[in-house]
Structure formats: structure tokens, C-alpha cells
Amino acid sequence: MSPESVWDAARRARIGLAEAILCEGKTPGQIAAICAVATKDDRHPLLLTRLESTVFAALPPEVRCEADYDALSRTALLGRMPVPGEAARIAVVTAGTSDVGVAREAVRTLAAYGETATEWADIGVAGLWRLLERLEELKRFAVVIVVAGMDGALFSVIGGLLPGAIIAVPTSTGYGMSAKGETALHAALASCAPGILVTNIDNGYGAACAALRILRAARQADL
User: Fold this and answer.
1) Are the C-beta atoms of residues 33 and 2 closer than 8 Å to each other?
2) Is residue 83 within 8 Å of 114, Cβ to Cβ?
3) What are 131-172's pLDDT values in tens digits?
4) Are strands 90-94 and 75-78 parallel, antiparallel or unpaired?
5) Are 205 and 20 in contact (CB under 8 A)?
6) In angstroms, rounded to a whole number, what is the distance separating the alpha carbons of residues 96 and 130?
7) Residue 128, phi then psi, degrees to nearest 5
8) Is 34 contained in some domain?
């Protein structure tokens, strides 16, 4: 492994969330070397994020053969997957189908921890009836991850209607003044719906980690 890569093997024991490999900016050789170290302890799956299909194709065969790769979310999972829980406690919704890649990053991250997520795509406010049709179902979830670009209006609408924890994920989807997600980010941060947690632009991974922390804190409070 290259000198600049030091695997944090104790992170899961320390904070409950294992280190993931951010593949963006790394060479196939660097990624393979980190995988070799990280998978020595195969009790938990290894998550690779921002893994482009061209980079995945350049990885050694022994890595590719063991990986569950998803091109849409640009993620790969290595190792034995945990048995998912019986009932989903997290919903992941998108304003449009253009946001699904970021949403799938969140879903795949949750899967690495045995958390099943219920997904709904294309329920943005441009066709508000699509959200209203799902409203009673969405009220059942402890955490709702909302993924939206453009004007980011869905964050405030859902934040004003649902009682659970709301995690807003602005995406870089949109034209012109959407400014590669900055408009949606500002809308989420300036929302008048109280208590919305906001991640960085296109950060489905971070949203999933926040959801896992919320669920863990709730479990500990019940003990």
C-alpha cells in the first residue's frame, strides 16, 4: 500500500461507522492496495464510493470478481453482507429520476450496515400529487432522506409534513441558476421547516451515515 494510505481499521469500533474507500482521485492500483488491507478482516463488508465504471474495469480481476458493483450509484461492496432487518426504518425519496444516482449511494451505504431502505423516486413538487399519494406511508419511517436538485423545494415541503428525522441531500441536478447544486443547498439551509439536517451536495453517503447515527442513538436511548 502506498505510504499516504493508512487504513483506519478501528473506526467502526470507535464510532460505529467503518471507513469507506473514496475512489475519486485514486488510481486502480491504489484502490486495489487499500482493498487488500481493508478486507483482511472480512467480518464486515467494505464500501467503495465514487467508483467510475472505467476505474472499476481497470481493477485487478480478483477485486472485480468479489465486488458487487453498481454503476448508477458508482459504488461497490466487498465482503459478506449483513442480514437485513425485517422492516425498513429509513425511506429514501427523490424529487426526480435524475437524482436517483445520489439516492442509490445512500441506499447502498445503508445496505452495508444491514439497513433496508424503502425507495421512492420522482415525487417532486412539480407534481405535488405524487408526494401526497405517499404521505401516509412516509409518516411511518423514523428517518426520511430527501434527495433533490433544481430549487430544492422538496426539502421544506417534506420537512413541514413529516414527523421523523429529515435529511436533505441537495444534488447538482438542474439548469443555469441551479448552479450545480448550490441553489438546492442554500434552499435546504434556509428552510423554514425546523430541524432539517443538511448534507453537502451529492453526498448520499454522508446522508446514510447520518441516518445510521440517528438510529443508533435512538436504540441506545431505549436501553
Assistant:
1) yes
2) yes
3) 999 999 999 999 999 999 999 999 999 999 999 999 999 999
4) unpaired
5) yes
6) 11
7) -60, -25
8) yes
pTM comes to 0.92
Domain-located, residue 1: no
Task: Give the strand pairing for 46-49 and 75-78.
Answer: antiparallel
Q: What is the DSSP string of 76-138?
A: EEESPPPPPPSS--EEEEESSGGGHHHHHHHHHHHHTTT--EEEE----GGGHHHHHHHHHHH
* Residue after which a domain boundary falls, among 78, 107, 130: 78
Q: Is 184 exposed, middle or buried (0-12, 13-18, 19+ CB in 10 A)?
A: buried
Q: DSSP class of residue 117?
A: E
57 shares its domain with 154: no
Per the structure, the complete domain to which residue 65 belongs is given by: 11-78
Number of domains present in the structure of the chain: 2
Q: Which of 144, 148, 131, 143 is nearest to 186 (CA)?
A: 148
What backbone phi and psi angles, to 5 degrees, belong to 26? -100, 150
Is residue 71 domain-shared with residue 118, that is, in the same domain?
A: no
Distance between CA 111 and CA 99 in Å, rounded?
19
Is residue 125 located within the same domain as residue 167?
Answer: yes
51 contacts 75 by C-beta, under 8 angstroms: yes
92-143 tens-digit pLDDT: 999 999 999 999 999 999 999 999 999 999 998 889 999 999 999 999 999 9
Whether 2 maps to a domain, the answer reads no
Q: What is the C-alpha to C-alpha distance for residues 8 and 164, in angstroms, rounded to an integer?
A: 32
CATH of the domain at 140: 3.40.50.1970
